[in-house]
Amino acid sequence: MLGLNLAKMDKTPIIHAYRHLYRELLRAVQFAPPHRYTVRNQLRASFRDKDAVWDPEVSKRTLWFIQAARREAGIEHKVLKNLVRVAWERQNMDTWKVSFRKESESRGKDVIQEANNMKATVYNHYDMTINMLNKSMGIRLR
To answer: pTM of the predicted model, to two decimals?
Structure first.
């Protein structure tokens, strides 16, 4: 969602923006247990990102987008629902132990090796599409 550079600025508007975004995101996912944790983790990660820069206009537009997604089941709601679902899928990847077992069992099988290569690059196009959406609308979604 949003990141910050706290070196020279007051933290109060950033904290308020975080709280507003979190509250609206919880309302947008209707406090559903798997999705509220996904939203929380995504928001925390974006606010803790060291490379991101704080922009109040982007924060305001993102909040408007989330409020529109909460109010009615339109395009905004569908976009937000898919963002949360994909983020949840990304979080629920196999642990290293399970991945190691699957890899050791599949050695020598070309089809499984191709599937593993595809898994490594499956989200590239998705990430580029989200970046283009962010740039065109002046918002910051993840």
So the answer is: 0.77
